[in-house]
Fold this protein.
Amino acid sequence: MNLLQGCDAQCPHCWQTINLSLDLSVPEQSYVEDCPVCCKSMLVTYTAADGEVLELTVEAAD
Ligand SMILES: [Zn+2]
């Protein structure tokens, strides 16, 4: 089963809306990803249950 889901979020640096691919088979995850618009690092943290995103936060990572 593929639990990858695209999810819209806002970059904490440039405030552009970006689309993140979240792996919802993992109940809780946090990782650093570069913004595709401004290339700055952001810390993505989310929790998931039953294939749905419960909570998603994106913060500046540097
Ligand atoms: Zn950005």
